[in-house]
From TrEMBL:
<keyword id="KW-0815">Transposition</keyword>
<dbReference type="Pfam" id="PF00872">
    <property type="entry name" value="Transposase_mut"/>
</dbReference>
<comment type="similarity">
    <text>Belongs to the transposase mutator family.</text>
</comment>
<keyword id="KW-0238">DNA-binding</keyword>
<keyword id="KW-0814">Transposable element</keyword>
<protein>
    <recommendedName>
        <fullName>Mutator family transposase</fullName>
    </recommendedName>
</protein>
<comment type="function">
    <text>Required for the transposition of the insertion element.</text>
</comment>
<dbReference type="InterPro" id="IPR001207">
    <property type="entry name" value="Transposase_mutator"/>
</dbReference>
<keyword id="KW-0233">DNA recombination</keyword>
Amino acid sequence: MLTVVPEDSTPENGSTARPSLIDEIVREGARRMLAAALEAEVDAYIAELAGERDDRGRRLVVRNGHAQPRQVMTAAGAVEATAPRVNDRRVDADTGERKRFSSAILPPWCRRSPKIAEVLPLLYLHGLSSGDFVPALEQFLGSGAGLSAPVLAVGDGALGFWAALREVFPATAEQRCWVHRTANVLGALPKSAHPGAKKHLAEIYNAEDKTHATAAAKTFAAAYETKFPKAIAKIVDDLDMLLAFYDYPAEHWVHLRTTNPIESTFATVRHRTRVTQGPGSRAAGLAMASKLIEATQARWRTVNAPHLVALVRAGAVLEAGQLVERPQARAA
């Protein structure tokens, strides 16, 4: 709200200069115009896609509240922008990734999740993974003393997470989730081909070792690439990142090839928020999540063969998932 400041209230020594009333009016006008333009942009986007619906007749593109306020520099000075958010549940047939609304008004940096590269190290130190923007399992956590990079990160198609990971922890290996990727592959195939494709895919991620998995991937490609090249590309193009888990202990493969461990950990929280139709408020949501996690953590278990975690972090050599050389032996 604008307030007219009497002339005699201006400091005489000039040490604390007040912005002129006309500057405040210009900035307030710019803020309102920007807010109206952003609202109109989203309304037009949603209206254009109103006919896109799922099998139950529900819209695939709807509004989803507002993003955090950002300061945008304009000719009138810094203006606060609060952009409306869009929940777009459509999937790109070519990439298998969720489609995203991108504002043509805001600059690119305003379209990304705020401070993800700054938050990622904190999440790592606490051994946490945020479902808001990191649908990933960060395995092989250190003791928390210092900020040594994680050995391997597991996730789906969260582009913001992978971009932040490469910026903050460039040496960390990447593993794509097989559950999500299988769904993407099946989405590019007719239903009649699903049973055979599922069998081929299981032979890849359940193979004896990486060599056999690579051979199984080639067999899958040979069987389907003529008729369904898009489905094959989802495996072949990212094969190295899909098979990265084979470079670690065989006891850990079941934990590393999908994001299920971290998603299952927070399943109780997710189910409860669905039943209650949302948390109600931020404070209530945090309290509910905290109590639910405290109640369920007694049933959690560690990864298989936890004693191997320290050896992997120390640089132990493995072949076909088996430990062949300990770090101490190599140092000697």
